[in-house]
Structure formats: structure tokens, C-alpha cells
Amino acid sequence: MKLKSAAFLTLLVLQCLAVLTVAQNDFDFFYLVQQWPASYCGTKRSCCYPTTGKPAEDFSIHGLWPNRNDGSWPSNCDEGSSFDESEVSDLVKRMQQEWPSLACPSSDGVRFWSHEWEKHGTCSLLNEHQYFQTALDLKDKSNLLQVLKDAGIRPGKFYSLEKIKEAIQQGVGYTPFIECNVDQGGNRQLYQVYLCVDSSASDFIECPTFPHGRCGSEIEFPSFSSLHDEA
């Protein structure tokens, strides 16, 4: 009887762990979050350019984040899965260009990529290489800077929030969420663009829910090329 009881308890524990794992990994869609470097650097905290040099004047990836329709999200789903740079060796050059870290002190990006993989990627149901390649390909597919330029929206000026949202909606085909921050002069500026991606990470979709936050009716789209070569 004792052996049967022990076996039953072991089975019960394993089943509970399996349910917890499924629940932890459960999500409905992704946010692809892209940030505008001039807005990251143009705040009181400033920024530090990567050790590879000042990035191009273009949107860069912040992350590809699993989310749920109720606004919650899974995180750190596999503590045993650490970022392994060798798994993405063929992507590193693209990641340096399209997924750089602007945090201080200057870095090669590995710490940033490790954070994104371990917090969000481990919950994505993708392996490490798939996770980073998918985010890079989705960024290229959205082509946000060109979409804005095609609508007459260029860095260095103020625009209505609605005009920016409408330009992205028409160019990408789906409604974005715009996150703003505040520059050193107190102006609200375009900081991050959220686009939603289906749970298989294959294509954009309309967002089931948006993050919270407000921008104001007129926002700045600051120039990155006009910033000093050294942040």
C-alpha cells in the first residue's frame, strides 16, 4: 500500500507540474515592440551607444513578447534555458544592427538579448534561433520608418498622434499602439510602436488588447542623425 501511495503521489505531483508549465507558457498573441533610438536617448537618463558604434536612424527591436487577451503575460518560463550566443551566430550581425542595446554602459548587446530570451523567449514556444529570427523578420516586414516616410512623416518634426497611427495602420495593415516618453524639454515624443502578432508568430493581427498609456494629440518624432556621435 505504501508503494502504491507513493507512486500515486508522485504521479499527482508530476501532473500538477505539467499543468503549471502549460499555464505558465499559455498565451494568445505576441507584441512586437520597436523603439525609436532618438527618443530613448533624448531623455534625462540619456543613453550609451553599442560598442559596435552609433546605430542607424531606424526603429530597432525592443522585444517579441508573448501576451494574453486579459492583459497578463507569461515570463521566465524555463529558468534552465540560458541565452547561448552560438545558437544565433548567423544572426548576430543583424541583431547588432536591428536589435542593439542603448543602455549604459556601452555593450555588445549580449546582456540585452539574454534578458529578452530568458524573460520572453522562453515562453514563446520557439527555440532560441527561431525566436530571434522571427522577430528580425517581422521587423523587416513592418518596415516602420519607410511606412512613415511614405506618409510624409519624417524625423525632426511634430505630428498628430492620429496621423502617425493612421500611417502605420495603412502601411502595415493593422492598428498599432504608440508609447510615448518625454524629452529633456518636456515634449512628448514617439518612443515605441507595438504591433500584434498571432500566437504562431507568423503574421500581424489586430491587437486583442492594448497596453495602457497616453501620448497627447501632438507628439515629436525626433531626429537621431542630429544627435552627437557619442551619447
UniProtKB/TrEMBL annotation:
Alphabetical list of InterPro entries matching this protein: Ribonuclease_T2_eukaryotic (IPR033697), RNase_T2-like (IPR001568), RNase_T2-like_sf (IPR036430), RNase_T2_His_AS_1 (IPR018188), RNase_T2_His_AS_2 (IPR033130)
Pfam families to which the protein is assigned, alphabetical: Ribonuclease_T2 (PF00445)
Record keywords, A-Z: Disulfide bond, Endonuclease, Hydrolase, Lyase, Nuclease, Signal
Entry GO CC: extracellular region
Entry's Gene Ontology molecular function annotations: hydrolase activity; ribonuclease T2 activity; RNA binding
GO biological process, one term: RNA catabolic process
Signal sequence, renumbered to the chain: 1-23
Active-site residues, Swiss-Prot/TrEMBL: H62, E116, H120
Gene3D superfamilies the UniProt entry points to: Ribonuclease T2-like (3.90.730.10)
TM ranges: none
Keyword Protein transport: no
Family: Belongs to the RNase T2 family.
UniProt cross-references to PANTHER family, sorted A to Z: RIBONUCLEASE 3, RIBONUCLEASE T2
Protein's name according to its UniProt entry: Uncharacterized protein
Organism, as annotated: Coffea canephora
Top-level taxonomy: Eukaryota, Viridiplantae, Streptophyta, Embryophyta, Tracheophyta
